[in-house]
User: Fold this.
Amino acid sequence: MSVQPKLEIINLGDELLIGIRENGHLAYLGDQLTRFGLEVQRNLVIRDNPEDIKRFFKDSWDQNDIVITTGGLGPTSDDLTRETIASLLNLELEFHEEIRQRIEDRFTKMGRTMTDNNLKQCYLPKGAVELVNQFGTAPGIFLKKDGKILIMLPGPSQELRPMWNKRVIPLLEEEGMNFTDQAYLQLRTYGLGESALESRLNPILESIEGLRVSFCFHHGIVDLRLSSPNGGLSTEEIEKIGEQCRIELGDDFVCYGHHSLAKIAFDQMRGVEKTLAIAESCTGGLLSDAFTNIPGASKIFAGGVVCYNNDAKIEMLDVPESILTQHGAVSAECAVAMVTGVAERFSTDYGLSITGFAGPGGGTPENPVGTIYLGYYSQVGVWSQKLVFSGERLTVKERAVHAALDFLRRKLIRYRVEDFLAAVGTSR
Amino acid sequence: MSVQPKLEIINLGDELLIGIRENGHLAYLGDQLTRFGLEVQRNLVIRDNPEDIKRFFKDSWDQNDIVITTGGLGPTSDDLTRETIASLLNLELEFHEEIRQRIEDRFTKMGRTMTDNNLKQCYLPKGAVELVNQFGTAPGIFLKKDGKILIMLPGPSQELRPMWNKRVIPLLEEEGMNFTDQAYLQLRTYGLGESALESRLNPILESIEGLRVSFCFHHGIVDLRLSSPNGGLSTEEIEKIGEQCRIELGDDFVCYGHHSLAKIAFDQMRGVEKTLAIAESCTGGLLSDAFTNIPGASKIFAGGVVCYNNDAKIEMLDVPESILTQHGAVSAECAVAMVTGVAERFSTDYGLSITGFAGPGGGTPENPVGTIYLGYYSQVGVWSQKLVFSGERLTVKERAVHAALDFLRRKLIRYRVEDFLAAVGTSR
Assistant:
């Protein structure tokens, strides 16, 4: 195995090509591999039939040191990957009684009977190691042959991910690969577009030889990754460049690494033992959900209210009816009333609110579709912010959630100042 | 152009290979194309650098009738797709003043200044048609050459999707392609695993020549797609087979087509002008969000409460403290109290609740991590259901949301019976 092995991922499954499901496997494995310096050369998504596997697998196998496949290991008659790849590699399939037993036990535990079509899952190519599947019937396959490695993983992500973490990484470590040290430095930013960010950082980044810079925009966040794939720069040198960028960016710098905006705000509040409640309308629960994706969220997140009509805003959040009639539900006044109401109802230190028109319906000349009002509540005051996003309904929702989390993050950076002012009894 | 053109999708972008983002473009385009009978032969995800584009694009172009690329059209210096592909096709790039004007107008509208690096977006390969970008700066490209079609789309999905719908489909229709009639019949089911579904439908499906059957499992939903790619079966014959399957499946049949479980429940309630409120804990807003993804949701969805701690359940949902101390927050009793409280607070006809342990923390010997209690409220009574899911936190959340929506759907099927009983004053 070379120091920098060539690696490809092949995702099998008609369902990926016909749009039933996003290819989360590539995102997951790509992230896992890249963090530890293994580069994915290319990704292929092909149909799960013997002809296409024959047409494309062999080329991947010949051109690379490691090939990872996902999918095609299920019990239905259209899953033929195991058989086809074993035949391409001139390997026989062998029946494993211990796999049959495990599958039967699993069915028994669920109160179901094992069906005959599960029996095909008990066969592995000769010489392969079973990757035990903790959350499903299909075992994975780890095979060393001709100095190369083949890793075959099951399609459902709740089976694939634990298998990768618990079974595959230890086996790759045995082959001398390093899954401890990260291979690049990521700066997560919010507030600048991709080209504005590049222009702003260009004076720092443009003249450095051996530095690889890449950008990625996702719903308002722009990630900047710094690495030196040819080893021209040391880790310390890259960290020093990262620090220069961080200082240049000021509050537009969110964090190093992969934390979500919700996680950053969560850590800010947890450090000072404060609590948060959320009121939202057009984002419909997505803002609350961003917090509850964090394990241990209940330490700071008391709860939220989704108020989709005016009666609910009055009843659940004590929004005065006069605000709704005078200013409407999409207004700075309503965002402020919602956030005040929810923080008082849940007795929390902070509150965050969103109201707006996500589209396609709604909107007024003054507040067209895509208009969002944010509200922020703390012990020392209440603020609101107006934003306008373009795009379709789901995009506007995602952007609004990120904007609200960033609004909270920036306000919390000022926390110590506010706290001091509140303690000495000075109002702003 | 042949009747069934060969088509590949190439997604460009390091960010897809290094796991910053899921490949939503493949899912979106795959779905769009498949619905109208265009099959994606294969999908390639490659890095956005001239070497890899040279290595892989030409082969795709040579082997197919239509090639669709996504990404690599941005203004930053690492976006070189336009230049490399034009050179591979021996086409010059031409500057288009009308594109520069559009980009400048866009910046002016947003109160920003156009930066010089946007100028590269004004160049198109000679002979190409501009695909006007309504939501971003990068124009798309539509090019006919040597009897083939090249379609180049921008990376952000809020730009790509409207461009596909409004610009590309009309141009493909001009080439004689049909974007009106759907090419397969999909039955969406819930309640059976993939292999149980196959075993149950096998007596109907196994002996039919020329029928293609495919299954896909996503968070408890199993989709069954019936088609006849070689034209052996007529639309009417496939519909007749679908009807046989629908009858065999009973309440496990959800719908024909692509509707979400939330949309199905929405339609059931909207047809009878009823309203719904939601109370959730471990799913943290995701259940409410499922409804608010439906345009016009406010017609039935009054709102929801996310109660992440016990105080919030008492204060916001009137859950009796004695239930929390005697049975705990994860119990059938609590699910019932939550759903009753939320329906009464929001004054709705129906209520739906979820409480459970999504993991990784929490859980008791009786209710381990993955245990979920659902609650359903209607005018004629309140019901609960216990379920146990395996998998990681986000998986458990997704599965719980689908299970709650399916619980609601099955209860609403019985709506007319309940309504009749309520009207004549009979309790069950």
Remarks:
- Residues 12 and 245 of chain A are 41 Å apart (CA to CA).
- The first strand of chain A starts at residue 7 and ends at 12.
- Residues 393-413 of chain A form the longest helix (21 residues).
